[in-house]
Amino acid sequence: MLDLDALHLDPSRGVYLPLDVYNSDFAERESATRDHVSWKFERRQHFEERNDPSRDALGQGRWDEALRLLDEERGRWLAIAREDERRGAPFRRVRVVETPPTPYMRWELHALSVQAKAGMGIRVVDAERVRPWEKARLLPEVVVIGGRVLYEVVYTEAGVLEGGRRFTDAGLAESWERFIACLYENGEDVVSCVDRYVSQFPRPGLGREED
Q1: Are 170 and 148 a contacting pair, CB within 8 Å?
Q2: Strand 91-97 and strand 121-126: pairing?
Q3: Which of 88, 99, 178, 187 is deepest in the core (most CB within 10 A)?
C-alpha cells in the first residue's frame, strides 16, 4: 500500500492560484499535454456548481429536466474526448462515493455517466477503499496533468470552486498518479454503477434538493 506520506500535500511547497489564474494555468498545461494520461481524483461528496442549468434544476426538484440537460451536453464531451485522443492524452477520473449517495451525488454520477458514454474514462470507488489513507482527514481533490504538474483543487466550505494549489515536484505527481491509477484499475465504470446501483434510488423530492 502506498504510504500516506507520499500523498501529503504541504501547502508551503505549492503555489496558490486564485480561480481565474488557476483556470487559465490548468487549461494551458492540459492542452499542451501529449502522449500521457492525466488523472483526476474526487473525494468531496458535495459541490456547488455555478451557472449550470442542470444543477439549478436539481436544486429546484426538477429531476427529469436536470437529466435531460445533462444528456444535451453529450456532444460537447464527445468533442473533448476526441481531442484528447488526437493528442494521445486521455483524461481519466476516479470518483469516490459514500453510500448511500445523496441526491447531489446521484446527479453527479448521472453527469459523469453522460461523459463516459461520450468516451471519457471515469470509474467509481466506494469510500471504504480510501479510508486507510484518511486516518486524520479526508483526502484532497487532486488533478495530475501529464505526469508533470499536480493541482490540489481548492473549494470553499460550501463546496464552491475557489482556486487551486500548483505543485511541480515530480515525485509527488508520480505518487498521486500511481495511487489514482490503482484505484481506477480496480474501480467500476460509472455507467455500470449508475445502471446497477444509482438508478434504484427514488428521484429527489420536488421543490428542493434533499440530503
Answers
A1: yes
A2: parallel
A3: 187
Q: Taking a C-beta distance cutoff of 8 angstroms, is the pair 163, 11 a contact? A: no
CA atoms within 13 A on the CB side of 39: 23
Instruction: List the beta strands (DSSP E) in the chain.
Output: 15-18, 38-42, 91-97, 121-126, 141-145, 149-155, 161-167, 188-189
Are the CB atoms for 187 and 94 separated by under 8 Å? yes
Please write the tens of the pLDDT for every residue from 10-26: 999 999 999 999 999 99
Task: Note the pLDDT tens digit of each residue in 80-134.
Answer: 999 999 999 999 999 999 999 988 999 999 999 999 999 999 999 999 999 999 9
Considering Cα of 126, then 130, then 131, then 136, what sign does the dihedral take? negative
Residue labelled with grid coordinates 486521455? 90
